[in-house]
Amino acid sequence: MRHDPLHPHAHDPNLETPAGDGRFVLSRPGHAPLTLTPQDLAALPQTSLPGCFIVSTGHGTSGPFTFSGVTLRDLLRHYLPAGEGYAHLEIISTDAFGTRVWADELHPGRDHPILLATHRDTLPLTRDQGLVRLIVPSETDDALRQVKWISHIHCIAP
Fold this sequence. Notes:
The protein is mostly beta strands and 158 residues long.
């Protein structure tokens, strides 16, 4: 099996906040990439997840927080043409940290859906907090899926 830099991997803490305004690129198989903003996410159905923790490499665990934003499932339902699927997503940050989210992790009815958070405890996330941050409520121990400073979401075809 070949080495996969996205899953699993180590990540050293980033000591400096990268520049940016929260824009990220959504790449879809067979379609032109879209550049989305936090304002674009605000126009989609919003979900709040109470009781979430931030598990940060080198900084320990903080929380609980209520994160709000759009679920990955709702984002894809809006921006992928009907009937087009994906095997998994690659979520990459500005500092090249990343993770994968598998299609079966986005099934409807999950108690704690994966979220592109734009707010924490009703306040917009700051750039230092990520502006747009991937929240994976099922992760509680190693901070390898809590991607902040998202720059790209790649939909990988089955």
